[in-house]
Amino acid sequence: MKTLTPSQSDITHAWYVVDATGLPLGRLSSEIASILRGKNKPYYATNIDTGDFVIVINAEKVRVTGLKAMQKVYKRYSGYPGGLKEIPYAKMLEEHPERIIEHAVRGMMPKNKLGRAMMKKLKVYAGSEHPHGAQQPAELSL
Questions:
Q1: Considering the entire predicted model, what is its pTM?
Q2: How high is the pLDDT of residue 40?
Q3: 72 exposure class (CB count in 10 Å sphere: 0-12, 13-18, 19+)
Q4: Residue 7 in this model has a pLDDT that exceeds 90
Q5: Are the C-beta atoms of residues 123 and 56 closer than 8 Å to each other?
Q6: How far apart are alpha carbons 22 and 63 in whole angstroms?
Q7: Residues 16 and 55 sit within 8 Å (Cβ to Cβ)
Q8: Nearest-angstrom CA–CA distance, 97 and 95
Q9: In angstroms, how far apart are the furthest CA atoms of the chain?
Q10: Handedness of CA 102, 106, 109, 115 (dihedral sign)
Q11: CA 54/CA 122 separation, integer angstroms
């Protein structure tokens, strides 16, 4: 028996649309990360980008459980003294709701060039409209 290693010519990238309305952030993000990596396919390989494209709509309607809506804080550090920026979840949801899902999915992806390439296949939109109709994405219910 030989192990099948897929080549780039064998791989087809499908498009999926996910409606985030009322879905918990963590469960949604883990499913999206799995699809982006290609773990739902029989020919998954860790060193090749076998994943599909994912379009997330209604990112502003994603749900968090417990006290996360009041306590969750997004931090970034510039590298300079006093350069720590903290943004509460409520403000991030109000100003940039798509970044909430992108941040959660990015944390579940590999931290290398391949992970960054896979993240480019994620398209997140705050509203219910997206400009990827020509790709004929399939509805994905999570």
A1: 0.93
A2: 93
A3: middle
A4: no
A5: yes
A6: 5
A7: yes
A8: 6
A9: 59
A10: positive
A11: 5
pLDDT score of 78:
97
Q: Rounded to an integer, what distance in angstroms lies between the CA atom of residue 44 and that of residue 118?
A: 14
pLDDT band of residue 8 (cuts 50, 70, 90) is confident
pLDDT, residue 71, reads 97
Structural domains in the chain, sorted by start? 15-64+96-139 (3.90.1180.10)
The alpha helices in the chain, defined as continuous H runs, are: 25-37, 68-71, 89-95, 97-106, 113-119
Amino acid identity, residue 128? Answer: S
Residue pair 124/102 in contact by the 8 Å Cβ criterion: yes
By DSSP bridging, strand 84-88 and strand 73-77 are antiparallel
52-79 tens-digit pLDDT: 999 999 999 999 999 999 999 999 999 9
CA distance 32 to 9: 24
